[in-house]
Design goal:
The protein is mainly alpha-helical. It is built from 8 helices and 5 strands; from the N terminus they run αββαβααβααααβ. It has 3 domains: 65 residues; 58 residues, Ubiquitin-like (UB roll) (Roll), CATH 3.10.20; 93 residues, no CATH class. Keywords: Membrane, Transmembrane, Transmembrane helix. It comes from Clostridium pasteurianum DSM 525 = ATCC 6013.
Amino acid sequence: MNKKKFLGSIIILSIFLIFLFVGYRLQNEKANSKNDNISIYKEENMENNYNEANNEIQNTKDSDGKKEIKAQIYGEIKNPGVYSLKSGDRIKDLIDLAGGFTENSEPYSINGAKKVVDGDNIEIKSKQDKLKGININKSESNSSLNNSGDSGSNNENEKLDINSASEEDIVNKKIPGIAKGLSKKIVEYREKNNGRINSQKDLEKAIGPKRAEKIMEYIEIN
């Protein structure tokens, strides 16, 4: 009888130990699984934060590199007006936005590769504008042929259109103080500024205040 009780106790103790061991293993596996999930969550969270920060930096770069500017275009253009562009855009981009040149335009009067600056006011010239300086020279030549005695006086009294005259025209006009070197500076300044000299101040920037003041009586700014 005592032997049976002893064996029964051994069996009960063994079953208890088995349950205790299994319970411990299950608890340990749950803890490991939880830790793995936390680790995965942290890694995913860190990756998301990195991606968000990277996107923010990229967006900032894109925003800085594409600042909005405004410029006006008029003259021989299909849809003159004020247009919004991005910094770094060229005059050609502005021309395209405005619908392109008219049939009466002189496309080569403008440098399409030049960058647009905020606040630019760009004129597209007509074919007549280009021929204007040539017509003035022809008129002077005809006058000299028909009135040889008065040709010198007529040429001196005729003012030179500084916006249509070529470098050679300026030299031939024989304006006091303006030699070939200065006439070249005038033309170069004009080409860098949308093909125009708009005022005496522009002329001063090209050749200096004193020279500009001296030649104003010999030229006209149209």
